[in-house]
Amino acid sequence: MDAAGMWACLPRDLLVEILRPLDRTAVFRCAAACKPWRRAIMRNASCLGPGPALLLGFFHTSSYVHHPMRRPHHAPGPFADVLTAAAVDWTNYAALFQTRSPAAPFFLPPAAAAAAGGDGGGIGEALYTRPLSSRDGLVLLGGRAAAADLCLCDAVTGSCRVIPAAAPEVSEAGASYVLVTGGDDSEVLILAVKHGEDIKAGMTYQIFSTASGAWGPVERSARLVEEEGMGPAYRNGEPKDVVVCRGSVVYWLGVVVVGGRSRRRRRAFAVDVRTRRAWATELPDKYVALDCRTWYCSLALAATSGGDGQLSLVVSLPSRQIEVWVLVGDGDGEWTLRRTIDVQDLLPEDEEISLGRVLWLRTFCPRSGCMLGDIDGHHLVIPVDEDIPRPVQTIIGSRVSCYPYEMDWSTYVSRMKYF
Fold first, then answer.
1. Taking a C-beta distance cutoff of 8 angstroms, is the pair 198, 232 a contact?
2. Predicted TM-score (pTM) above 0.85
3. Which of 196, 212, 253, 318 is deepest in the core (most CB within 10 A)?
4. CB 52: neighbour CB atoms within 10 A?
5. Domain 52-414 adopts which CATH fold?
6. What is the pLDDT of residue 120?
7. Helix, strand, or coil here: 15?
């Protein structure tokens, strides 16, 4: 130790051996201790932090709660477990409408919440409280009005960026937003799609690039329904109904009306934000018709892990089974049943789910390849590419939309310079 008070660091090899048995949360706490430790961890990331500890947290919003002044609910930072937060009584709707307490069904890490105005400072006083989309550690927040400006927050660093609203042709009646990021690329694309329109003849959309700092022109996609005699077509709007594949292809679950409202067919609609190509994809035959046989099934879109990023369809059935289908090829590709999961196997041995109960799928986490669902008070993380699901506890209720934010180990390492 020198006269300036600098302390001698442990040899790198010895430090790595000490850190090797620790979980990733503990490793990250150590990375924040000093630069020598941080450098040692970054250079040995491949052998540290056992287990895929990927889920950092979730942003929640209830479809029954529309209080314009509701604030973000603060959660611990990126080094702590945020899957267990303050409990919310989802049955007390009157209190949910009136309260401004921290137990509101939204939350941000402390730094991001302060920057976004949740602490009475930063960008604005509780201006941005509606989660619109999340991906790769970023969350897009909306303001009080449908056409208000947007706020892009980095959940790790706490940095926030105000983005102007999309053009009135897209956002005036409300828009759906999708964050599109190419892995760890610095550029982030925001896809804004006109809400509630008949997309049979094409989707109206606009794309924002953080590289250029501006919205592109309002565009109209190619026709999405070619068959004669078909009625209007619509996109579904829940987080579980949208997924990004191969870094640039955005898929939505949707329906096409056939004849009358009593006859509807499910389809997946897609647009590639890089090439502007748009198309529709049929679902597996047994799930195409939206009728009494499939009404009580819960469907969600996912993407296979790895470089291929193929479109997957996850179906939860009343028979307590989960089916994972994978589309081989775009558009006219073929669906293959990849695996079947027994919901009962996800639960403790002393818990039994009655036949006919459905595990409701809520959202897909692209980095971990996990689907989040809930059944009878049990909230489960289901790896769609693995045969061994991992149960976890969350605060999600049955009337809540869920937007996850997460990053994998490589992204953590690349962002350690911010800590």
1. yes
2. no
3. 253
4. 16
5. Neuraminidase (2.120.10)
6. 39
7. helix
